[in-house]
Amino acid sequence: MRVDFVFEFPRPTMPNVVYMGGFQCKPAEPLPQHLEEFVQSSGEHGVIIMSLGTFVNELPADMADTIAATFDKLPQKVIWRYKGERPATLGNNTLIVDWMPQNDLLGHPKVKLFVADGGTNGVQEAIYHGVPVVGLPVFFDQYDNLLRLKERGSTKLLTINTVDKDNNFLEAIQEVLTEEPPLTTG
To answer: Rounded to an integer, what distance in angstroms lies between the CA atom of residue 9 and that of residue 17?
Structure first.
């Protein structure tokens, strides 16, 4: 089964079942120079990375603007995997990239938070590297994956349609950043 026993709820399995979750996880490699310089420029506040996976390249303009404005209010630097039109409210602390070495960023000691869609690979890499998550599930198994992390205390779970309501997104990020992370590195 492509899940990790740490991630699963207890259930009976047959003797021939092998849990192979996290098989793609590995120690972080050094970042490309431009990303390393950006990460190092974060100082004591660290970095937040955001990716909504390979299926979501673009968001509605108002939602992208809300996310960018939220990031602009934070002292952390942000690396956001996003291919849509540049949000009008994008701050100087946010770097938009078409692609990011997600595993290598999650393994970097300055990364403090992962804003993620809850895809299996991202969730397992976050567990492996001990990075807390603010989850924004979009479809498929993402909500279920994030719910499992929430039950273990390492995720604040939102829905994508509440990002722009009552500062939910900002409050979720601040809550996760100020709590002691329950995950340990793999």
So the answer is: 15
